[in-house]
Write a structure and sequence with these properties.
Layout: H1 7-13, E1 20-23, E2 27-31, E3 41-45, H2 57-78, E4 82-86, E5 102-107, H3 127-137
Protein name: HIT family protein
GO molecular function, one term: methyltransferase activity
Domain HIT: 7-115
Length: 138
């Protein structure tokens, strides 16, 4: 299902051109137009899902299977030293396009890419209660 005002739906359908490196009936893999590093790609489902909360588990599983294949190809071609797999959900988490997509960002020694967070203490958190609450929700 395509959402009319979604740029990634338009890219996935071919309405907007892209530097596509792979495509099948369910996904399109494109070069990012504002890459964090050389070889940064996006994996976009052709069906519109706003975020991880909307995508079904089967499609998500297929997407991650594809990500492993693409990651190996990136490593073979680019000889990168590492790779970040990144997927943002919600504005506060850095999502700017509200169509589920996954970033594969090749990493190189001494690159200027920064992805990380400050580690916090768990002293003020009732970890056992939190564990039980999440487990119950599953």
């Amino acid at each position: 299902m395509k959402k009319e005002d979604c740029i990634f739906c338009k890219i996935a359908s071919g309405e907007i051109p892209s530097n596509t490196i792979y495509e099948n009936s369910e996904f399109k893999v494109i070069m990012d137009i504002a890459p964090a590093s050389k070889g940064h790609v996006l994996i976009i489902p052709k069906e519109h899902f706003k975020d991880i909360y909307e995508i079904d588990a089967i499609t998500a599983g297929k997407l991650f299977q594809l990500a492993t294949v693409v990651a190996r190809a990136l490593k073979e071609v680019l000889h990168c030293d590492g790779l970040n797999v990144l997927q943002n959900n919600g504005l506060i988490a850095g999502q700017t396009v509200y169509h589920f997509h996954m970033h594969l960002i090749p990493r190189y020694e001494d690159d200027d890419v920064t992805i990380g967070w400050k580690e916090h203490s768990t002293e003020d958190i009732d970890m056992e209660q939190l564990r039980q609450d999440i487990k119950k929700a599953l």
